Amino acid sequence: MKNTGFTPEVRQIVHWRSGGRCEKCGCKPAIQIHHRQNRGRLGPREGLNEASNALDLCLECHDWIGHNVKKARDELGLAVSFYQNPAETPVHLYDGVFLLGPDGSKTPTSPL
Length: 112
Fold this sequence. Notes:
three-stranded antiparallel sheet
């Protein structure tokens, strides 16, 4: 498996938060962890590999985000620009809109 930069502890937190279900669709088992704020060429940044910047996704939803970056970023918070803080950016998940914490918490919030 490709090393994404998430530690085993963060992967465990994200998987616990998701309950093993895709956090976008809620229908399929989660098999990939997605960086909401892209790793890109800008190098390491604070919070990049925290649970607030991670989503547990099925392959189809991970691919959808990659092919629909503008909608995923501007409307759903599934992707986050370099200038946004993932912990302060609401994300639309299958079960509501939340702020994600580095400890794996999901705090209900209002949409983007």
